[in-house]
Amino acid sequence: MSHPIIPPGAWLGLLGGGQLGRMFCMAAQSMGYRVAVLDPGAESPAGTVADLHIRRDYLDPQGLEELARLCKGVTTEFENVPAKALEFLAGHCLVSPMASSVAIAQDRIREKQFIEATGVAVAPHLVVRNAADLDAPPAALFPGILKVARLGYDGKGQARVASAQEARAAFVGFGEVPCVLEKRLALKTEISVVVARTRTTGVAVFPVAENEHRGGILDTSVAPARIDDALAEAARSGALRIAAALDYVGVLCVEFFVLDDGAVLVNEIAPRPHNSGHYTIDACVTSQFEQQVRVLAGLPLGDTRQHTPAVMLNILGESWRGSHAADPPPWERLLGHGSAKLHLYGKSQARPGRKMGHVTVLGVTLDDALASAASVRALIAP
Q1: How far apart are alpha carbons 108 and 147 in whole angstroms?
Q2: In terms of domains, do 172 and 204 share one?
Q3: Residue range 142-166, pLDDT digits in tens
Q4: Which runs of E-coded beta strand occur in the chain?
Q5: Strand partners, 125
Q6: pLDDT tens digit sequence for 111-131
Q7: S-S: 310 plus which of 45, 161, 283, 340, CB 3.0-4.6 Å?
Q8: How many domains are contained in the chain?
């Protein structure tokens, strides 16, 4: 079976207007492509840099038809895009990832069941579809975290619970939608692996990143992760097994928990480039976003070697003292660190918890990068 190549100069389409889409647009445009973004937002981060912004809902027939007519290939920048939109577009142009892959990642219940079926371990958990499921949950799951099965991200739709009573209260608070009750584990660290996989099953894996979260939102990624080779290989192997089982085409991130005893468990998957992979823009031969373009266009995968140790810091809305992105952090002092690479997302409204940008700090050694990152962190701290 032939796999068509989309040459530079053609139009590529994108569902979603967030910052991941913005960075995809920039990578595609640097390679000579034109990009059309379908997103209902008036001033979305991706829409403001795209060659064309189709401001319509993701299921709007006219918007989908315009995207399909114009573009040779379409991808997505967030996992909650309606599967029907991807299915429609797949009948008119190349689409990656496939709707079937995205549908699994959209639902924590399906996701955990799928991952377990591949033989890769996940955290102990209980599927909660109704209140009766919490009448006598296993005591071993407490303390735990109740997570909504759909539409939860960056710590939203999650509640820490210490008992069945607290779990039931949280379930009611979430509107009694399907959830997963997951055991809270003693973690040594959290890591993630970004994988790219082509239609011809070619694969490329980026170096493992070590992640720290605050308030459920990624705060810092360190790459390469400060873990031993055996643990890194276990994570890479698990991510590749999941990608193969999904018959995945595109860029996929697999997040892992590393327990105190060295066990590695999958937390969740993201069928798109990932926040923890932003370091690849400045520290790798090929970024995760260029890789996304290459996969969609049917081009050879790029080299994923990391040439410089890096620490990525998220910049949240708390770093601004005004809600309209006035009075921002002292950029001139931040950029006084010559190895600091600033990426802002073009958002005019600064709100607590909102990702406004990131900065990647490079170093000759990882210790150098960590030391510089500590100084930069002090400048963007709220």
Answers
A1: 8
A2: no
A3: 999 999 999 766 667 899 999 999 9
A4: 11-15, 34-38, 52-54, 73-76, 94-95, 125-128, 144-148, 158-161, 179-183, 187-197, 203-205, 209-214, 217-223, 250-259, 264-270, 310-316, 340-344, 355-362
A5: 182
A6: 999 999 999 999 999 999 999
A7: 283
A8: 3
